Amino acid sequence: MCGSDKKLGEIRALILVGGYGTRLRPLTLSRPKPLVEFANKPILMHQIEALVDAGVTQVILAVSYRAEDMEKELTEQVSKLGVSLTFSHETEPLGTAGPLALAKELLNSNPEPFFVLNSDVICDFPFKELAKYHRSHGKEGTIVVTKVEEPSKYGVVVYKEDGEIESFIEKPQEFISNKINAGMYILNPSVLSRIELRPMSIEKEVFPFMARDGQLHAMELQGFWMDVGQPKDFLTGMCLYLTSLRQKNSNKLYDGSGVVGNVLIDPTATIGKGCRIGPNVTIGPDVVVEDGACIKRSTILRGACVRQHAWLDGCIVGWRSVVGRWVRMENCTVLGEDVIVKDELYVNGGQVLPHKSIALSVPEPQIIM
Amino acid sequence: MLKAVILIGGPQKGTRFRPLSLDTPKPLFPIAGLPLIQHHICACAKLQECKEILIIGAYTTNLMSQFISDMQKEYHVIIRYLQEFAPLGTGGGLYHFRDQIRAGNPTAFFLLNGDVCSDFPLRELWSFHEERPSALVTIMGTEATRQQSVHYGCMVREPSTKAVNHYVEKPNSYVSTLINCGVYVCSLQVFHTMAEAFQKKQDVFYSGNGQNGHPGYMSWEQDVLAPLAGTNKLYAMQVTNWWSQVKTAGSAIYANRHYLELNKENDKESSGQPSCHIIPDVFLHPSASVDSTAVIGPNVSIGAGVTIKAGVRIKESIILNNATINDHALVMYSVVGQDASVGEWARVEGTPSDPDPNKPFAKMDNTPLFNTDGRLNPSITILGECQCPNLFIIIIIIIILISFIYKGVNNFFFTILFYRYT
């Protein structure tokens, strides 16, 4: 057992961070997407921690823009975990496969397989099982698949009982399979010979050929999975994540008075009297929730303030924003950083850009510049 | 001696005030804590010379008797309700009860429409009338915008004498920006003029084999005032005092604000320490129970037996008797009906519908609930007698009587969930 663990320890991982995270605006106008806190932890840290847990010692981040702040902050956080972080900068966006070619030297430096993952994915990361399964079948690659309710929106994966993938079918009209690519892979360095240094899609230009050659297997994901790249899915993902914490009997969940269901509250946050928080709420560090506020299915980011008697459902409240007294916000409202919503307003599906002060209600979903 | 007559119409009038008028006769709808026509009575009772107030309408006596006896006790003046046997129009009822008005031989009588709100400068109006011996009727007039004037009685005056030489009720095209406020002083001789008008109506009625409505029906404005114009018997005194009609629920909120402001100036007696955070002006009935953490005002009237729980915010609203507003709820630009209940963290929000503040002399647009396409006009929200459960939002909507709102209601939906009288 010890031996196999040691072997795992030599695994590297490449995370496809990509561009500016436009789908998660207005949050990503203030902070690169990998650093936006999902359940009080940067999205990327969920993945890196899981990778470290699986014995990964080197993480390569493929980014298509330079953000020195992000690099500094991430390097700092990651160093505590005893893992080295390398940034691989694309001069032009290279899609989902191109970044592997760019990092070819690093990935080719030893013959061990490496993990590749999309940065927006949140789930119970199965990296140990993935590595184990990959070694057991001995083929070039393994991709993680997850079950979805409406497969016709995605590309589905068709595979045999032993896991060998037969084909990929884009947006099937008739039911063929309900398994889709979950955006997590383990690949042997030999796969790099199939990839060129140009904008290239791993899903369309690499995997189908590996499948044709019988070199690609699928491993089914147990538990929840969500691509949290946009606000609506971010909130859905949060609900699933909190539910999963509950199932694992995590002591991270808050169980004080005034709380309903699964709620995550940072110890530095203050919660007033007579509040009703939850279900499915995440409250970040230094947040102040004043007396008599009601918050459901929402994320409140660091330093924000929800004032008395406010009512929030399905909202993301950005860093240091202030939600006024008796305000009602709902329907996937996202406040950017340092937004002020004046007392007694109604915000329905508003996406409010950073540093904005709103003095009028927003009755219909819209972007507030 | 003087008398006063208040015309309140009947239940078939005031339909634009529905659904509020379904529960309480519109003349008794509380504005700034007092029934609408109590403000009239209060103004009349202030005049020492005014010995009797006659209220004429088509509401049944049992709807009015409690109010009349309350008023008697409060104002120490004779107050009587005279019920029309049939809706006789603004002039018909007045003429029908002429003997009651003439009894005791008063010098003159004030005539007030029940659906107007003002501080009623009756003393000034009376002096103006007295100074003009030929005057049969003096009309209180006010300035309106050109566009809005056509919705009212329009008057043209002789500049020096202030005699009205032209009067048209709701003209089709612009006539004058001086409009009739529905407040008058009348000399008793006006009944002679009315007798002539009555005779004309009778002639028309009998020559048409009874096909032309009720024989006693007469419009004060069209059948009496309009013919009097140009005879030097009709005068108008222009005032700049605040004045508004109360036709729709939206105008009730507007009237509420002004009456609260007037009452504050008139009686400085404070009703003790307020029990919660009050942003003036607010009328709080002594029997209402209000949590100390609630924030109320400006422009709020809260009726008898109302319960306001912790953390509630109310502004620009009228809360009728025995309603309950539960914790953390927000109510603005709304009327909450009798016995209604608003749930925790609910938001009840109407559209402000004040006259355009950027236009001098603008009046309330008393638009009906629905426009010609059948769409609901944005207005204040009215919650009839209903239950609005926790967390829900209601915007621009009219909920009629004993409804249970089980779903959030957003913009421009109109819901009648259950209607008691059908």
TrEMBL record, chain A:
Pathway annotation: Nucleotide-sugar biosynthesis; GDP-alpha-D-mannose biosynthesis; GDP-alpha-D-mannose from alpha-D-mannose 1-phosphate (GTP route): step 1/1
Name the keywords, alphabetized.
GTP-binding, Magnesium, Nucleotide-binding, Nucleotidyltransferase, Transferase
**Which cofactors does the annotated protein need, by name?**
Mg(2+)
Q: What class of enzyme is it?
A: transferase
What InterPro entries does the annotation carry?
GMPPB_C, GMPPB_N, Mannose-1P_guanyltransferase, NTP_transferase_dom, Nucleotide-diphossugar_trans
Q: Which BP terms does GO give this entry?
A: GDP-mannose biosynthetic process
Gene Ontology molecular function: any one: GTP binding
Which parts of the sequence belong to the Nucleotidyl transferase domain? Answer: 13-241
Stretches assigned to the Mannose-1-phosphate guanyltransferase C-terminal domain: 259-368
The EC number of this protein is 2.7.7.13
**What family does the entry list?**
Belongs to the transferase hexapeptide repeat family.
Protein name per its UniProtKB record: mannose-1-phosphate guanylyltransferase
- Organism of origin: Diatraea saccharalis (sugarcane borer)
Show the taxonomic lineage.
Answer: Eukaryota, Metazoa, Ecdysozoa, Arthropoda, Hexapoda
UniProtKB/TrEMBL annotation, chain B:
Q: Which InterPro entries match?
A: GMPPB_C, Mannose-1P_guanyltransferase, NTP_transferase_dom, Nucleotide-diphossugar_trans
Q: Which family does it belong to?
A: Belongs to the transferase hexapeptide repeat family.
Q: What is the originating organism of this protein?
A: Diatraea saccharalis (sugarcane borer)
Q: Which PANTHER family match?
A: SUGAR-1-PHOSPHATE GUANYL TRANSFERASE
Domain Nucleotidyl transferase, chain residue ranges per copy: 3-200
Q: Where are the transmembrane segments?
A: 391-419
Protein name, please? Nucleotidyl transferase domain-containing protein
Signal peptide range: none
Give one Pfam family: NTP_transferase
Keyword terms, alphabetized: Membrane, Transmembrane, Transmembrane helix
Ranges for the Mannose-1-phosphate guanyltransferase C-terminal domain? 278-380
